[in-house]
Please model this.
Amino acid sequence: MKYRIAIFTSDWNYNLVTQFYDGLYRFLDEHQEVTVFVFDCFAGKAEEGDAGYSEFQIFSLPDLHDFDGAVIQGNQILSDKLRNQIIARAAEADIPIVSSNYPAAGCTYIGTENYEAMSEIVEHLISHHGVRKMAYVGGYIESREAKDRKRAFVDVCQKHGVTDYDTYDTYWLQKNGNEVTERILKGTLPEAIVCANDDMAFGVCETLHDHGLDVPGNVLVTGFDDVWTSECFQPRLTTVNRDYSDSAYRSMSVLYEQMITGDRSVRVEYSKHTPVFSESCGCHEHIPNDMISLKRTLYTRERMMREYHSIESRMIADMMDAVSFDDIFAVFEDNAIKLFNCKNVYLCINKTPDMAEGDDLSDYTDHMMLVSYSGEKSEEYKVQHVYHEFDKKEILPEDFRIPSQLFVLYPLHYQDACIGYIAMDGVSPAGDLNLLESTFSLMDMVVENMRKKYQLRRLNKRLDELYIRDNLTGLYNRFGYDKIGVVRFQRILEEGGEAEILFIDIDCMKAINDQHGHKAGDTALITVADAIRNAVGIERDNVFSMRYGGDEFLIIRHNDGRDVKHLIRAFLDKKNKTDEYSFELTVSIGRVITSYKQNHELGRLITEADQLMYEIKKKKKIK
Model:
């Protein structure tokens, strides 16, 4: 039996997500019957109304009724609202859900015992190093993990009678560690600074160094998470290894068991964690001794980054030079495999009447369009740049989806506009280098830039139409005559046809205005314009009709043998027989014909048609 699992994460801390994927791959190797779809983004703590919040719309893409289970990498999604929405959708679909590394109501929890892990760090500082004065740099205060770690710090201090400490609530980033350290240094220097994660600890160490202070000589510093860079940092960071790989593997294993057994009971299981006492607290454990291996790793990563940025810069430059969405999609298709180093990469966008129009782009449309497809194409789809419409429920169209156990999807968006998503059959090595976010942001801007170009072209076209159209009748005006009418007349003759010029004047227009009012006069003008449109058909290259001025109209058309004069009069006669008008509406029409063999100066022909019309009008007055 085949199983499908949805995973929700936010890649704001790429080190932790990369470790998570390691455990995920281990699970998939043991369970070939499982396919996983990862819905990933980079918004981190963005709240509703923030510019980055639309990234989270990727979480709304899957219909969980089509899945057998779900996992939330909860500590990567920092919005309780979003977590609760996903949990509620899983409950409504009646599928089991596991929260990895973040306790959440209604979910089985697999992850670190944060309170215990932080307690071990603080206990070590007090009992082993004799620290009595400390500062604590806490994470995002709304985070359950941040609360547990801060509580552990305070409890251990109180247990040992340590009262000389300060706590600072901030966010999880390195710059937050920098900022808090500047505040700490305005007072008395503590013996140790305990940080709720490694990134903040890096910021603390950097700022202390900038002020001429040594770690651990002047101040002991600790972190939490044991991200890859903590091993390379100087000094090697004292931290907590959470074994994200193990928690991912166990999360998937527990979920799989619940899927198989139908068990929906909520339970709590703690994954392994190990305190890493090293140089930043004055200890000498866990110091890398294989410098050759470390140098090779750093060199390889640096070379990969150079190659990646080289391909990325060329791709984005080509996209910026594109003149259409088709060009952008083709450029992406040409570069995606080289850039992301996956077997297959898919680009899907919302199916809207026109991406440049003001369509509702707040969510994904029911039908999506595959617009770029790079990778292992079957013989049937070897052609480049395939366009294919598919139901959103498929996530990726079955006809093009190459079998894989793992698909990772990232949103394509701009501010609050949800445009589409990029999917890969596996994890891109660029993710481990923290390169994907900038690439997708650049692509977001490229697509939005093209949307704005399209909107500007559309607006300019509409402005042109307003400029060359008569406001009342919708026919062309004198500007339209100069820009379009003359050109169409010349084209008719150049193609060897006869040009028919009709000059039309409304009879007794002054009487209509005087006796029935100017509103009736406007109605007469509009009705004659309708009669002209009815007679000549849809505007095309061999037809031009305009309001020549006042109550006069002009038609320039290819003479196809139809009696346009009769058609106009018949239309008006039909109107006159209704009770719609309080006046009788008739017209006088002068008509001339010319061909490329004759003297066909347009101005002279219009004058001739005008004179013929005038003679007809005089005869009507005599009668």
Q: What stands out?
A: The first strand starts at residue 3 and ends at 10.
